[in-house]
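Changelog excerpt

This revision adds worked examples to the README so contributors can see how folded entries look when concatenated. The first example is reproduced verbatim below.
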Amino acid sequence: MHGYYPSNWTTKGYEWTTALKDLAESEVLVWWFKHDWNDCPEVTSQRLAIAIDSLKIKRGYLDQVYVIGHSLGGLVVSDLAEKWNSNLKLTIHAIAAPLSHYSERLNSCEVRGKEKYTFSEYVDYVQWRTSKYTDGAFKHLEKDPQNVDLINGDYILLPKEWNGKRLGHNLSIQLVVDQFLDKINLF
């Protein structure tokens, strides 16, 4: 699940290119869920839940689905994870997600960030936090919007550098996908 792209952003989705290529080459089945950021996060998470239910029906052999959300997409997948009530196991990876603060752009939305998230037994939840000071989306904020309490979930603090580069907001996707692929290839 991608994040928010301002209308003047010229490289929409570019930050996912290498990660998606690596996932495809590893033969992991990938579905890209494109959404409209003019909708509230709770509307998008409901649509995603319906899409996952449909996927389960079409692919009856599925016993687990991995969902990766980046930035504001991480907020959407975190909302999905909290509301998930199916016995299909979800593994959620929320990357560089502003879970405690949502943009005032959509003040009428129900989901605007909060300080605590609680997940059920059917959800494995990992939040991947970037360093506030190396993340271009968060470094100007007074408070790090990634810092929240996770009940039945975990977080991993990412390094400030990776592969000789500053690990910022967008590069964090590639690091997490690399970690994910290393983990699933062990089995």
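The second example, added in the same revision:
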Amino acid sequence: MTKEPKAGAIRQHNKQRILAAAEEAFAEHGFKGTSVQKIADMAGLPKTNVLYYFNSKQGLYIAVLEQILSLWNSAFDSATVEDDPAEVLAQYISDKMRISQEKPQGSKIFALEIINGAHNLTDFFKHNHVSWMQSRVGVIQQWIDQGKIDTQDPYYLLFHIWSCSQHYADFSAQITELKGSKMNAQDFEQATRSLVQLILKGCGLSVPSKYA
């Protein structure tokens, strides 16, 4: 009875090692410049293990893309119309900024995929991301209808949050060059407060004391 849970834990551990290595490799070399063998070497596992878990390089690439998208979406999954828009949006922005700080490579891979037409995300977009977007837009629209939030279009609000927060991952090299140094934890904290204030005040919301 102990063998199955142990085997499951090993499987999950190996998959996470492979995903982490793939994220690093795809971010540095792109899809075409990355080989399965390179990922296997970086993960410290045989190439056969990589193919066993993900079938192909494209399968692994899609898994990396879906992982970052699911991580972003989970930060706003539980919001309901009964929640305080200021608290929810402030936390969502904060979570998105934290992900940009901690998972910049995944964000860069996703950005390049979208720029190139999102051909590898078509099915996931149709079956997961579109339905998620519609449900989140529905919550924001109800906030608008109830007079809780002063904004015209839920889509544009989310697009603004995404573009601003993901900028810190996707354009980190530019930020470092312009600021003269790489952003540290304190810089990200300050940038998060600034973005929360900008978005919430633009929506006619009071900024929670945590971000003031």
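Reviewer comment on example two: The two ends are 53 Å apart (CA to CA). Residues 122 and 129 are 10 Å apart (CA to CA).
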